[in-house]
Amino acid sequence: MVSDRLSDGSVTARDKNTAVRRRPDPASVRGGASSFRRIASRLATVVAAGLMVSACALFDFEEPGPEDYPVQGIDVSKYQGDIEWHQVKAADIEFAFIKATEGGDHSDTRFEDNWYGAKAAGVRRGAYHFYYFCRTPEEQAAWFIQNVPYDPTALPPVLDMEWYHDSKTCKRIPTRAEIHQEMRTFLTIVERYYGKRPIIYVTVDFHRDRLVGAFNDYPIWVRSVAGHPTIRYGDRDWTMWQYTATGRVPGIRGNVDRNTFDGSKKDFARFLAASQIDVPTSSIVSSAE
């Protein structure tokens, strides 16, 4: 069995090779009436197949690797400790998503330092919320709004959706329909408050179990540390790709999640502009007040 999470979380040559698109084998040559011709035909097929394999080895038909994307970013929480954001900026990190809240009563202890530190260093930043299945979406949206300041220059807010089967405090496993309803509620409240279309972060297993074919009207940020997203998510359109949990960036001690945007720097600017919606920040639905 192949796990999505590698022992070191990185994208290796072997992982990237899983994305190789092989050309189809040539059609078998039909044999003639004589046994000699049939044998010759089979030999020709073998030779042709061998030549085709050699050709595939010479030409690399793989998806782009993380290093091929020009817009690089990170996501951080309290576990990264004290971050030297000016060093992060100097390392060509274009954006950072910062953990703000979890559930309806937990806030990340490093959020404020990271939120203001990243902005002071010139790193585009946004906040994310880790969804908890044992609190209502209204409570969680209100908690996120309470902790994350409104800033029109910030990146769109992020809803982090993933399984946590080992939780000791919440054993609930919502159905697909329940998940969709709760996500829509949270996303609508947050979008109306911040005036930006939120991003949905998702892991391979959660996407497979609950989100295939859904929420195509939202930007999707995928986790895929063992290969290109097209291998793990099929034809799902994605905007952000978290490609390793053991990245290294100057200014951060230890490991950090590394991410990339699917497009050029001009595409990134267009994406941010398109995320803005014309909704007053004061129009929060009553359930979130």
From TrEMBL:
Domain of life: Bacteria
EC number: 3.2.1.17
Record-linked Pfam families: Glyco_hydro_25 (PF01183)
InterPro entries given in the database record: GH, Glyco_hydro_25, Glyco_hydro_fam25_subgr
UniProt cross-references to SUPFAM superfamilies, sorted A to Z: (Trans)glycosidases
Region named Disordered: 1-32
A GO MF label: lysozyme activity
Feature: compositional bias, Basic and acidic residues: 13-25
Keywords: Glycosidase, Hydrolase
Regions annotated as coiled coil: none
GO biological processes: carbohydrate catabolic process; cell wall macromolecule catabolic process; peptidoglycan catabolic process
Family the entry assigns: Belongs to the glycosyl hydrolase 25 family.
Protein name: Lysozyme M1
Source organism of the structure: Methylobrevis pamukkalensis
